[in-house]
Amino acid sequence: MTKMMLTESNYIEAINSFDRKHWQPLIKLIPEIEAASSFGEDAGGEKDEEGAIQMPYLIESDIVNKFRKEIEELGIMISFNWPAWDEGREIAGNKNFDFDSIDIPTKCK
Q1: Chain segment 49-106, per-residue pLDDT in tens
Q2: For residues 12 and 78, what is the distance between their CA atoms, to the nearest angstrom?
Q3: Segment 77-86 long-range contacts (CB within 8 Å, at least 24 positions apart)
Q4: 33/26 Cα distance (integer angstroms)
Q5: Could you tell me the pLDDT band of residue 23, with boundaries at 50, 70 and 90?
Q6: What confidence score (pLDDT) does residue 3 get?
């Protein structure tokens, strides 16, 4: 499979062209995602021997690493200005958001 970089100008057409078979690696991860008790843990923030504070960071769980690997291999990561995407901030901030109300390309963003 040839991977192309999806951008705001080409992601809708590209994602809508994928057949069911293309999505199977992600669909196979659903039971593991649903069974996950955590998606990562905070680390860092402590002082080292020299008194410098290490910046906090997240250690992702195995399922997050698997998910990230699959979306990279499937070529469905979209390159765009994420922080400026107001709709995405509203979606992420609403734990009761109805994901059936948005199309697949928007879900990929």
Answers
A1: 898 888 999 999 999 999 999 999 998 889 889 899 999 999 999 999 999 999 999 9
A2: 10
A3: 77/6, 77/108, 78/6, 78/7, 78/8, 78/11, 78/108, 78/109, 79/5, 79/6, 79/7, 80/7, 80/8, 80/11, 80/109, 85/109
A4: 10
A5: very high
A6: 63
Q: In the numeric block, which tokens belong to residue 8? A: 């705001």
Structural tokens at position 2: 């040839």
Amino acid at 65: N
Residue 40 falls in which region: left (phi positive, over 0), alpha (psi -120 to 50) or beta:
left
pLDDT, one tens digit per residue, over 94-105 is 999 999 999 999
d(CA 15, CA 104): 8
The owner of tokens 């992600």 is 26
Q: pTM of the predicted model, to two decimals?
A: 0.73
Contact yes or no for 25/73 (Cβ under 8 A): yes
Q: For residue 84, what are the CA distances in angstroms to 50, 79, 80? A: 38, 12, 9
Q: Write out the two tokens for 97.
A: 């958001």
3 state SS of 79: strand
